[in-house]
Amino acid sequence: MSDGAARKRILVVKLGALGDIVLATGPFKAIRAHHPGARITLLTGAPYADFLGMSGWFDEIWTDDRPPLHAPRRWLALRKRLREGRFDRVYDLQTSDRSGWYFRLMGPGARPEWSGIAPGCSHPHANSRRDFMHSIERQAEQLAMAGIADVPGSDVSWAVADIARFDLPDRFALLVPGGAPHRPEKRWPASGYAELARRLAAKGAAPVVLGAAAEAPLAAEIRAACPEAADLTGRTGLADIAALARAASGAVGNDTGPMHMIVAAGCPSVVLFSAASDPALTAPRGAAVTVLRRDGLAALGPDEVESALTMR
C-alpha cells in the first residue's frame, strides 16, 4: 500500500514486554519509512508509552489496559476506539491471541488491511515455522510479506537522558542481576555477580547495578562484597538505561528486558541464558554481544563470565 494524496491511517500493535519492545524498534522504524506521510498510531503497554513517544516514529500513542474477559464495558470501549480510528492498515507485531481478538473487534463489516496471524487477515505471515524464528527475522519476514522489504536492526539511538544525576565515575560497568520474579531459573546467582563486581572494580571499572526496586536486595548483596558498586535499582527509566549503556565500558546481565536495551545501545555485553529460554529465538542482537548458556546458571563461574566480557 502506497501513501497517496489522502493521509493514510496506520495502527501498529506492540504491547510488550520490554525486550520485545526493543526487538520491535527496527520494524517500527521500517514502518515509518514505508509510510512517511501516514498518520501512525501505536497501541502499546502503559510502561512503554512515554519512552516510545521519544522515537518520533508515531503521531499518537494509545495505551492498552488489557481488559479481562469479564469486563465487557471495557471491551466495548476498546472496540469503539479501534473502529473510530478508521485505520487503513494494521501491523500486528504482537501476534498474540489478544491482538488477534482485536482484529475480530474491528468487525463486522469491512476491516482494515491487517499484517499478522489473525485468521482471515489480508496480509498473513504465512510461515508455519514462524514460532521457531528469532524475533528479528520473524518480524522482518512478516513485514516483507506485507510489502516492507528493508527492516533495520534494533535502534534506540533516539533514547536520550541526562545521567549526570547518578554521579558515576568516568569508567563503569553495568550489572543486571535480576529478571522476572516468577522465573528465578533465569538468574545467575547474586554471589556470581558479587564476585564479578569485585573483579571489575579491581580493573578500574566501577560496578553499577540496574534493576527494579524489588531487586534492591540483589544490589545489597553485591555491595556487601564490593562497596565500590553503585546501586541504581528502582532509580532508572527506560531512556536512562539506554544512556547509561552508551557511557558504560561493558555490561553483564541475565536474559531480561534491560539487557536488550543495553545491547541495542551498543554496549559490549555478556548475556546469560539458562535452559529456561532459547537464545536462538530471543537473544539480544547487537554489534558487541556474547551469549553464555548453561542448563543451570549456578554452573557458570565468574572466571568464564569475566573472560567473555571485552570492555571498551
Can you describe this structure?
By secondary structure, the protein is an alpha/beta fold. It has helices at 18-23, 25-34, 49-53, 72-84, 97-105, 135-145, 190-202, 216-225, 238-247, 257-264, 279-282, 302-308, and strands at residues 9-13, 39-44, 60-63, 89-92, 113-116, 123-124, 172-176, 206-209, 230-231, 250-254, 269-273, 289-293. It has 2 domains: 9-145, 3-Layer(aba) Sandwich (Rossmann fold); 164-308, Rossmann fold (3-Layer(aba) Sandwich), CATH 3.40.50. The protein contains 12 helices and 12 strands. The strands form 2 sheets. A 6-stranded parallel sheet has the order 3-2-1-4-5-6, with helices on both faces. It has a 6-stranded parallel sheet with strand order 9-8-7-10-11-12, with helices on both faces. Strand 4, helix 5 and strand 5 form a beta-alpha-beta unit. Helix 7 crosses helix 8 (216-225), helix 7 (190-202) packs across helix 12 and helix 9 packs across helix 10 (257-264). 43% of the residues are buried. The mean pLDDT is 97.
